[in-house]
Sequence to fold (120 residues):
Amino acid sequence: MNDYQLGAVESRFADIIWENEPLSSAELVKRSEQALSWKKSTTYTVLKRLCEKGIFRNEKGTVTSLISKDELCSLQSEKFIDDTFGGSLPAFLAAFTSRKKLTAGEVEELRKMVENFEEE
Fold:
């Protein structure tokens, strides 16, 4: 599995791309300077790293995503559950709910998700 973990600043940078794509690399440099106070070299270094991770593509000066923000969150969640709970969603939910009780709405939402899954 690819390393899709992002630090806080990388996440903010990725948001700039997702919110504005497709965008030129020059526009990305400008937005990164405004939002993150980055120099051009920092923008290109981080962009290259995220392209190597398979999250974005910089082709002919146009930056686009290879995976959506939602897909990235799903991949990160799966990796966390795999690494921490041996891939067991029930073990994760048990740990999660031992400290934070679910609301009635959340329980109902989970029931619907399970029912939809069973129907498929």
Summary: Helices lie at 8-20, 25-36, 40-52, 69-85, 89-99, 104-119. The chain has a mean pLDDT of 93.
